[in-house]
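Dear support,

I submitted the protein below through the web form. The confirmation email said the job was done, but the results page showed an empty box. After a refresh the structure appeared. I'm attaching both so you can tell me whether what I see now is the final result or a partial one.
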Amino acid sequence: MNQRYRIAVEDWIEFEDERHQVVGTDGALVRLRSITGHRITIMLSELLADHSFRAHAEPPPGTGSNDVGLDPGGVLATVSPEVRQAALDLEAHLWEATTGFRSGDPMKALAGEPRPQYDPNLPVTERIEAKAAELGRTSRRLWQLLEEWDEKGLFALVDGRKTRIRNPFRNTDPRVIQAIREQSASERMDSSSAVTTRFLRRTQNRLDADYGEGTVLLPKEDTFRRLVKTLLDRRPSDPAYQRQSAANQPDRTFGNVIAHRPGQVVMLDTTPLDVLAWDAATDSTYGVELTVALDVATRSILAWRLTPAGTKAIDIGLLLADVMTPEPMRPAWGDALRYSMLRVPYERLLSLNERLAHAAARPVIYPESLLFDHGKPYQSDVVRRACRSWKIDIQDARKLKPTDKPHIERLFGTIREQFSMHVAGYKGFNVATRGRTVEEQARWSIDEISEFFAEYVVAVYQQHPHSGLHLYGFPDLEVSPNEAYAMALGSAGFVDCPRDPNLYYELLPIADNGGRVINSYGVEINHLVYNADVLYQFRKAKSPYPNELWPIRYDPRNLLHVYFHNPRDKKWYTLRWTHALSDLQPFTDITLREAKRLLLQRGSDASKQASIAQALRELQNRTDAPETWTKGTRKRWTRDRHRAHAQAADALRSTPAVPAPPPPPLPETRKPTITGLHAVPDLLDEDDDLDLDAIQPATVWNPRIHQEN
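What the results page shows now:
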């Protein structure tokens, strides 16, 4: 039966008792190069018919598998038992040829050893000749095996065909390999997933652009697919989020962020919460963002904020205040969730911080350094000023390197598994994991989700054993974040956190980054005029500040009010927008920009307060009229309302600012008499005068109430 051979370039063969490498072939002729450098060309048919021809010979030392750094012992451990036994049998023959005994030890001689032809008294050359005749090999080949055996041990006797490293790219142009890698790198982060044919076309276009059209051609499609699968850890057809995640991984061993005491390193990050919130007023759903502060030493969640999509810098600044403020107990929570259950010297801490008396079991820590990414809210002046005021160091993580803050990235996965998946309205972490009726299942508002999350943190997460926390001296005993905090207080001590009742106002940004002039009609900020009685004594007065301007602070979540600090009584006063009607709901800076954009589209002057008030009125009326509702207006209305509530809650925790007098009530004859739904009136012409006092407030339409009726 004829045996079939496959000979390719770079293969090693045996021919005339010498090893040769195939350096070229054209089908009929084969070009060979021996290990001594001698080159010959022979017909393929003659080579295969020669009795000394052996295919798949072992490469010479320095060119085989061991040359790429393989461990010989590791190779022997991974070969099949048959291959290993064949090497051991060959080694026994070599021992017998050199010593006369198959074990190589005269003290372990077998029956009949030594055999006459391998008597140790005979010359070595005669014994080698006898062994070559016994094995059916030439004496020259046997001497080569002895030399390699002395050099590499048992590994030299293993069949080289079984340990040979297969190079899947040996017949591939290196330029093709380079083009595949470069094209993959260019598509890894930004391109959407697609079939391999698009990747093939783009790779060929890259080769044509680099080396000329038609100079370098890609292999057939099936071969190209195998090359891509071998070269790339993530193929172009893989989901985009998987390719992006793989691209963000560092090309070296992950580092460790080590903290030995509470507050030494606190990580901050914001991520979309995998739960849709439901707004009852508009009967719509919207996305929620979760911002978390995590203490690395104790793995404690120190503070959190849930906001509609679009977290602002003021949210991050106030989150830092939440870190140093005890979490209040809720009426429905049991006594087991009180701060006194943290197993710390509670009574002694009350003398330092009386706020802990009614606090929940969540650590209150003064952060030493913050680690966060390059998100816009984190790079704002509000966060920088807050950290400078509290003497907190700032450390920026590298862009697109989530592994710089692995603890908080893993925390988001834990929150998804333990909390988000169990809340009605869970939408999955990507489109592929999203259900078909998620919006119909959502039933909780963002405030209710915030309360649920607070209970989860205090009752579950802080008391659940953490795999990264261990009891000192007992590495197998895992502890919870609360237990880790109690142990850390014994070694690091308790640091009393600052308590500034004016903290909220001091974190707010200053209008125009420097201040404004107090005019006779009030303070003008972004074409809006704010006024209050407290400004009468400072009108047209020079400011004591270096730039001679008065710093006016504002909360971008609610532009109905701004805040003025009176240097005489050291109190904060609330200034109200002069054109704000009693029924005008709070609005954010985003809504204000949208109103000005509408004015510019109509050709109106965006600097006139009457025009701005009318545009805001129109926006709010559209949210009240179901026949003109759009998804954008519903989300804008929900976002503004939530941010106004959050702003009011933050202001209540600080020293109450002196409020401005409320606007006079509307006359009795001007009050609306229509209780049902009414249409939105036509817009006024540009030349018509707008009487703000004559505008009737729009009736808020509740879809659920009307459906029940």
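Response: this is the final, complete result; the empty box was a page-load delay. The first strand starts at residue 12 and ends at 15.
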